[in-house]
Amino acid sequence: MGTGREVFGDALPIAERYAAFLAEAGVERGLIGPREVDRLWERHLINCAVVSEAVPADAHVVDIGSGAGLPGIVLAIVRPDLRITLLEPLLRRTTFLDECVQLLGLENVEVRRARAEEVVKEFSVDVATARAVAPLERLAKWALPLLRPGGELLALKGERAQAELDEAEPVLKRLGARSTELLQVGRGMVDPPTTLVRVVAGRGEVVGRRQRAPRRAKGSRKRSS
């Protein structure tokens, strides 16, 4: 919980209410496995909260396949400057998300019951996030059409992150991705650090893959074109 206070700061009481709701209603409704309760903070809340290091200030974020609100609800808690749209097609999950938003008093969150391909004409967002939704090859087809040129897909991935990126490269090229890279965020806060695949949307063919060493991105960073 010391790390929880470091990550969430003054918003820790809100994060604690969310954790309690996940541990009760989330388990009862099958959104979180019972075995996950003892590791909610490290494996889920903090693991998602550190994604905020890679999200620009004042961004509009769409969380694809939001499920129990990971990472969308967590990002809304830790970063009130963000505008978050939770995109989820299943009614039982959107009902849970609506209840979360009301319980936590999150005025920067909208819940939409829809699939990404159904709302593509409605969105031109800065950032799309996703966690445990689909392989990158398929996820990119849903996410990139929702992004403005220069917008970013931040996909939380595990040990196969590099392999998924390699496999998805032909699809990313067809979709006009501008660049790709792997990031690790949350060093010193969560072990292992959270691995992100970042894909920058653009027009035309991929211009290159950035092969930087893992670093902690800053939420207030300037975006390169």
UniProtKB/TrEMBL annotation:
Entry-linked Pfam families: GidB
BP GO annotations: methylation
Single GO molecular function: methyltransferase activity
CDD domains named among the record's database cross-references: AdoMet_MTases (cd02440)
Enzyme class of the recorded protein, top EC level: transferase
Domain of life: Bacteria
Signal peptide start and end residues: none
NCBIfam families, per database record: rsmG_gidB (TIGR00138)
Name of the protein in question: Ribosomal RNA small subunit methyltransferase G
Organism: Actinomadura monticuli
